[in-house]
Amino acid sequence: MAVEGTVRWGILGAGGIAKRFTASLVGVAGAELVAVSGRSAERLAAFAPARIYADGADGAAAHERLLADTEVDAIYLALPHSMHARWAVCALRAGKAVLCEKPAVLTADEAREVAAVARETGVLFVEAMKCRFVPLHSRVQALLGTGELGRVCRIDCAQLVDYGEGRLGYLAEPVGGGALYDLGCYPMSWVEELTCGAPTGVSALARWKEVPGGRVDWAGRAELEFAGDVEATVAWAGDSANYDCSCLITCENGSIAVERAHRPERAVVHRAGRPDEVVEAPYDPDDFHGEIAHFCGLLRSGAAESPVMPLAATVRNAELLDAVRAAM
């Protein structure tokens, strides 16, 4: 499936992330927002002059109408996490390419289903794992690819933030909420990319938050072991007094410390006996632009999936998160 000329976008969902996506889309050449769907026509009015599909109920009828719109080529899926798998499959079967906000799914079974439908239909699906589409990511990968630092021995990643009580919303949903899905998926993406195979050992602990209808994890830490004597630590928290969003990649002959690893612009490379090297790679021009431009390029070329965030990466990331949840 290839698109010629301008890629016409529709957005499912009208939350804050959808507004940020829309603001960035304006700066991407050959991309245009044409439609948006959700529950509230009033909230959707912020996306004018795009066509508005609203149903006033749970949004399902509106999303179905958008997916039937023949003037929409691609979907940005910005609904709550628990709704991603269902609507990703619906969009793919409707012939709409999908850029799905992270985490793309809640379980490895859901990931495998979405990947299977994408391959069956030949329609593009990409998880919007932002840290993989910024310029610094390719700089880090190129540096590791030279082999000068040796093999990766250890990965220490953290995503510790303070949501604040006013930002609960979908994060407080017993199904799909919690900090592991919303925050932990970022550091786990680094672990997924830098290791191979299923973990040979997983241990984890979590601190839980009571919410209406159940509870969600609000902080946690996991230790993972992989073949080849590779170890990883992933920490996450939604109420941390100390902000820490970093990834330290320790290799045989040095290390790379990635700052703000969920959307990095800077890293420090350490080599024994040499001054540290600071690598700067600013956004061009913002942290959404890279993933949108990459997706549009894939769609115009008729690519089946992304080489940066392939379907296998989405499936394995979900498998690793499953393993951590089982150990919590």
Entry keywords:
alpha/beta, single chain, Dihydrodipicolinate Reductase, domain 2, eight-stranded mixed beta sheet, Rossmann fold, 2 domains, 328 residues, 32% helix, 9 helices, six-stranded parallel beta sheet
- From the spread of the alpha carbons, the general shape counts as globular
Instruction: Provide the number of structural domains.
Output: 2
Question: Which CATH class of the largest domain applies here?
Answer: Alpha Beta
Distance between the termini: 41 Å
The poorly predicted ranges are none
Order of helices and strands: EHEHEHEHEHEHEHEEEEEEEHH
CATH architecture of the largest domain: 2-Layer Sandwich
Radius of gyration: 20 Å
Strand content: 25-35%
Describe the overall structure.
- The chain is α/β, with parallel strands linked by helices and 328 residues long.
- It is built from 9 helices and 14 strands.
- An 8-stranded mixed sheet has the order 8-9-10-7-11-12-13-14, covered by helices on one side.
- α5 packs antiparallel against α9 and α7 (179-194) packs across α9.
Task: Describe the secondary-structure layout.
Elements: E1 7-12, H1 16-25, E2 31-38, H2 41-44, E3 51-54, H3 60-67, E4 74-77, H4 84-93, E5 97-101, H5 108-121, E6 125-128, H6 135-146, E7 152-162, H7 179-194, E8 201-211, E9 214-226, E10 230-237, E11 239-251, E12 254-259, E13 266-271, E14 277-280, H8 289-301, H9 311-327
Parallel strand pairs: 1-2, 1-4, 2-3, 4-5, 5-6, 7-10
Antiparallel strand pairs: 7-11, 8-9, 9-10, 11-12, 12-13, 13-14
Summarize, please.
This protein is α/β, with parallel strands linked by helices and 328 residues long. The chain has nine helices and 14 strands.
